[in-house]
Amino acid sequence: MSDLSYQNARQDWGVDELVIKLRHLRVQSLETRQRRDKPPKLPSRKELQKILDGLGAVLFPNRLGLPDLNDEGIDYFVGHTLDTLLRELFKQIRRELHFVSGHAPAEETYRQAVAITREFAARLPEVRKLLDSDIQAAYEGDPAARSSDEVLVCYPGITAVIHHRLAHILHQLGAPLVARVISEIAHSATGIDIHPGAQIGESFFIDHGTGVVIGETAVIGRHVRVYQAVTLGAKRFLKDDDGILVKGNARHPIVEDDVVIYAGATILGRITIGRGSTIGGNVWLTHSIPPGSNITQAHVRSELFQDGGGI
């Protein structure tokens, strides 16, 4: 046997057999989901990443746009870029609508995707105003920040909030899968996990940020500051009579205005953190607190012992 024949024999990976097995599993999965005749074409994470990068440049062309932009060229750049991005976003939204609807006429998903894309575009000035407040809150809240420009280009919390502001609108307008992909792009890049359904008021600042988790039904007021490894999560998951998780019920905290939550705090359930409260580091909190509260680990331990519990 020649050297070439020997090498080819040793490099037979059994690809033909693998293709057959994978096809069988793929078809079986489609049949289980009743999609045998219509395999799903989902929104593309890769394309949405490009759209997000472009939207950042549209919202902040002087700082995130092309390096050689001048005053005369900015409006043209914004208009041309936005037109291109919205056409691409429309395609991703239509993919989701077609996937969800199954057998809806193509004309119907087309009209819905156009309507969602137009409304999303109309709300971009609102997003810019909110992001300006978030950037200012970060600059004012961090003594290490030397400028708002530094905050925009360097802070992972701002990156996550930009993604969330955009994703939240799409979630509201009826494109929750596209919105969720956007939030997961931010999660991968920053370590900050904000569900697009979460409602977040203006001047929101996540400092450092790694490990922050904010659940789907969380409601956060204005001028709230959160540090790394904070969780706004669910205390328990309700199930129906068949043992299946109930979806969409309000199960995450309400955080009122002017609250500060320090690193490692875990706040669970549909409880309310009163306005102007401070939650200390590593606190585990599962009950509502009134406005102006100052909750520390020592405070929580004291409550446990008063209630007859222990640690």
Description:
With 311 residues, the protein is α/β, with parallel strands linked by helices. 52% of the residues lie in helices and 10% in strands. The protein has eleven helices and 14 strands. It has helices spanning 3-10, 15-32, 45-59, 61-64, 71-101, 106-122, 124-141, 148-154, 156-173, 176-190, 297-306; strands spanning 193-194, 199-200, 205-206, 213-214, 219-220, 225-226, 231-233, 254-255, 260-261, 266-268, 272-273, 278-279, 284-285, 294-295. The strands form three sheets. A five-stranded parallel beta sheet has the order 1-4-7-10-13. The chain has a five-stranded parallel beta sheet with strand order 3-6-9-12-14. Helix 7 packs antiparallel against helix 9. The longest helix has 31 residues, at 71-101. The protein is globular, with a radius of gyration of 24 Å. 31% of the residues are buried.
Using the alpha-carbon principal axes, give the shape. Answer: globular
What distance lies between the first and last C-alpha atoms, to the nearest angstrom? Answer: 73 Å
Order of helices and strands: HHHHHHHHHHEEEEEEEEEEEEEEH
Mean pLDDT: 91
Number of distinct helices: 11
In the predicted model, the low-confidence regions spanning at least 5 consecutive residues are none
Cα Rg? 24 Å
How much of the residues is beta strand, in percent?
5-15%
Largest sheet: 5 strands, parallel
Strand-pairing-aware structural class: alpha/beta
Count of individual beta strands: 14
Helix percent reads 40-55%
Strand order of the largest sheet: 1-4-7-10-13
Summary, kept brief:
The chain has 311 residues and is of the alpha/beta class.
